[in-house]
Amino acid sequence: MKTRVTLKDIARETGVHVSTVSRALDPNTRTSLTNEVVERIKAAAEKLGYRPNKLAYGLRTNRTMTVGVMIPDITNMLFPPIVRGIESVLEPLGYASMIVNTDNQEEREGRLIEVLRERGVDGIIHAAVLRSDPKIAEVAAQGLPVITLNRRIEDSNIAYVINDEYAGIRMMLEFLFGQGHRRIAHLAGPLNLSTGQLRLDAFRRASDELGLSVPSSLITASARFDEDEGRRCAEVLLDSVEPFTAILCANDRLALGAIDKLRQRGLECPNDVAVTGFNDMPFLDLIKPRLTTIRIQQFEAGQMVAKLLLDLIGPLPEDVSQETILPVELVVRDSVAPPKAAFA
Amino acid sequence: MKTRVTLKDIARETGVHVSTVSRALDPNTRTSLTNEVVERIKAAAEKLGYRPNKLAYGLRTNRTMTVGVMIPDITNMLFPPIVRGIESVLEPLGYASMIVNTDNQEEREGRLIEVLRERGVDGIIHAAVLRSDPKIAEVAAQGLPVITLNRRIEDSNIAYVINDEYAGIRMMLEFLFGQGHRRIAHLAGPLNLSTGQLRLDAFRRASDELGLSVPSSLITASARFDEDEGRRCAEVLLDSVEPFTAILCANDRLALGAIDKLRQRGLECPNDVAVTGFNDMPFLDLIKPRLTTIRIQQFEAGQMVAKLLLDLIGPLPEDVSQETILPVELVVRDSVAPPKAAFA
DNA sequence: GTGAAAGCGCTAACAT
DNA sequence: ATGTTAGCGCTTTCAC
User: Taking CA atoms, what residue in A is nearest to B63?
Assistant: First the structure.
């Protein structure tokens, strides 16, 4: 096991003190040194193949050049593009990111926050926060830079980057309305996540504004943003007494599950029931029927949140606007047709 | 910014020396202490909310409890399950993983290796290795535990976990043969990746064994494992003089691209041309036509490689078998039908 | 302009 | 059974 090259090795090689070497290698402190010695040191460092030890650096300076990224689950295709977006701004600046999956479990989330803190991350990007999330709130209160993505935490001043949920839901509702739908169900997301709650609020408000009165039995909330819950909730809607011609789902995976359940019941989308999604996750356009959905920014959201986090981290901590709302876009595909009849 | 609790704080609180605190908190060295003092220290640690500083620990012990994971691209759906498999064994043992994306670029890969080394990772799981990859070979030669996944590096003794490429290709070829196909093209993967080369070798060998003589113009190699290259290579095959009734592709994404190109040319899969994939990536079963493919283990491969890496890392470094070959499985879906006619 | 010395939080060899 | 000391590799006062 070849031992790594340290400042001491360079000092020995060049006959100067380690502190001089340290200064020579840092562009900021380099100025106070003779050009000649700087060059000699840089040459020796190069020759020996010196690589700074970020552990020692971090221990000394409290800056590890590492940020934590908390997401629910990387196998959820929504998150890889976000992660790459984050990386695209962090990596060129010398930051590495440590990605952890919470599976939306509070206890797991708590453990993982500790994993990140023990390793001295300079900040945390949290895309898996719960509406009420005391653990991360405390960490943020202690001064660790934290920004949440896609979701926000209530009653706190943690900055967040989210999508324009209201605009998305409203556009979709208008689109369905324009296609002739009047009895529109909402398959809502988990209400313990801000995304679920916000989209439900948006649905209520937008349907009011359009003059649709949506009976409460046409609104059902899922426990998780996944296909199984989409199936289960679609069943609940189908078994209710209220007829409907369209289901506006709080995300794509719920929509995919709902479509599957409809098919099991002998109902085809879009001809029998229109179904819409939210997010426009990768590969969605290859799945039949091609889902009409709201496209949110994914890669760009990652870039945005990373930039904001960097502002928060410093070197000179800037104030970051508490709220960033990213624009969304309606993507019309094949899962909506004009209504034929209402199914109860 | 509340400052973190250190061993010193606990020492002050309990009136013992920091080294005693250190010993009390480590199950291995705890034995040499009085039970009473151990309990007192543990209580104080708990009360003060002590969290060990893994940076300091790592600096001292050369073990950071962090492993590097190098993959080509997390947005490639093949990798998230692998990453979760790795995490599922590492995380319960207190390890964190640092994931980096190489985009199969050698220069980027080199930079990222340094990023990992600077942070003192205890080992590297490399799922993005090139057939010839001096950089990682050197790192491994210096004593850092490295295992490659899915791919292997040639002329080195780095342990690897790969799929049974030969069995997979052979099964698929037999299946096509059984369906009546005799003129079978191979859309090979990049030949600078062991996966691409191994699957091509397997195709040659298996077709020989089946008595098929495949003219060289029915074999074309892609530059990347993606849809665009699938389209491009399908075009090459279609424009060659040799007729064929089936394309055995080196992976699913190439197959998806090939099917798309066929469609552009007015050819339907499977009725006009059979197309097969490899990997069985997530969500593949939702995409029409549902691709007949070879299922490789993904989550399990991640688990396996993580376990092997742990053996290599220690505490008492075990010898790890150089080669691990994971079983594969034929998944028959809808992209293969008996041949109608051969297309040139 | 450069060297000396201290210390980040921790463990481990050595003392007692 | 516990305390003392040194040091991992680095930055940062403080001297000169």
Answer: A55
Q: Of the candidates B52, B96, B283, which has its C-beta nearest A283's C-beta?
A: B283
Q: Find where tokens 């011609």 sit.
A: A245
Q: What is the CATH number of domain B7-52?
A: 1.10.260
Q: Is residue A331 within a helix (H) or strand (E), and if so which, with residue range?
A: strand A329-331
Whole-angstrom Cα distance, residue A312 to residue A317? 5
pLDDT in tens, B231-258: 999 999 999 999 999 999 999 999 999 9
**CA closest to A98 among chain B residues:** B98
Judging contacts by C-beta atoms under 8 Å, the chain A residues touching residue B87 are 100-101
- Residues in B closer than 8 angstroms to A66, CB to CB, are 98, 119
Q: Are B279 and B199 in contact (CB under 8 A)?
A: no
Name the strand (E) or helix (H) holding B285: none
* Positions of strand C less than 7 angstroms from a protein CB: 1-13
Could you report the per-residue pLDDT of B286-330, keeping only the tens digit for each?
Answer: 999 999 999 999 999 999 999 999 999 988 777 889 999 999 999
Q: Do the chains contact at A51 and B114, CB–CB below 8 Å?
A: yes
- Arithmetic mean of pLDDT, B5-10: 94
With distances taken from each CA to the C1' atom of nucleotide D13, the closest residue turns out to be A19
Nucleotide nearest to B14 (CA to C1'): D2
* Region of residue B220 (phi > 0: left; psi between -120 and 50: alpha; otherwise: beta): beta
What is the distance in angstroms between the Cα of B292 and the nearest Cα belonging to chain A?
16
> For residue B254, what is the enclosing H or E element?
helix B252-264
Strand pairing class (B146-149; B159-163)? parallel
Fold designation for A165-296+330-343 = Rossmann fold (3.40.50)
What integer pLDDT is reported at residue A344 of this predicted model? 56
Enumerate the residues of chain B whose CB falls inside 8 A of the CB of residue A97. 98-99
State pLDDT tens for residues A69-104: 999 999 999 999 999 999 999 999 999 999 999 999
pLDDT at B1 over 70: no
Conformational region of residue A189, where left means phi above 0, alpha means psi within -120 to 50, and beta covers everything else: beta
Contact state of B118 with A80 under an 8 Å Cβ cutoff: no
What phi, psi does A30 have (nearest 5°)? -60, -35
Q: Give the chain B residue nearest A78 (alpha carbons).
A: B75
What is the arithmetic mean of pLDDT over A254-264? 97
Mean pLDDT, residues A229-241 taken together: 96
Mean per-residue pLDDT over chain B, rounded = 94
Domain topology for B64-163+297-327? Rossmann fold (3.40.50)
pLDDT band at residue B341 under the 50/70/90 scheme: low
Order of all β-strands in the sheet with A96-101: A96-101, A66-71, A123-126, A146-149, A159-163, A323-326
pLDDT at B76: 95
Distance CA B178, CA A269 (A): 36
Rounded average pLDDT over B15-34: 92
Instruction: Outline where chain A has alpha helix (H).
Output: 7-14, 18-25, 35-48, 54-61, 79-90, 106-118, 134-141, 165-178, 194-209, 227-239, 252-264, 299-313
Confidence (pLDDT) at A59? 96
Identical fold for domains A7-52 and A64-163+297-327, yes or no, is no
Q: Which of B84, B99, B281 to mutate to test the interface with A (most CBs of A within 10 A)?
A: B99
The one-letter amino acid code at B255 reads A
Is the pLDDT at B270 greater than 90? The verdict is yes
Q: Where are the domains of chain B?
A: 7-52, 64-163+297-327, 165-296+330-343
pTM score: 0.94
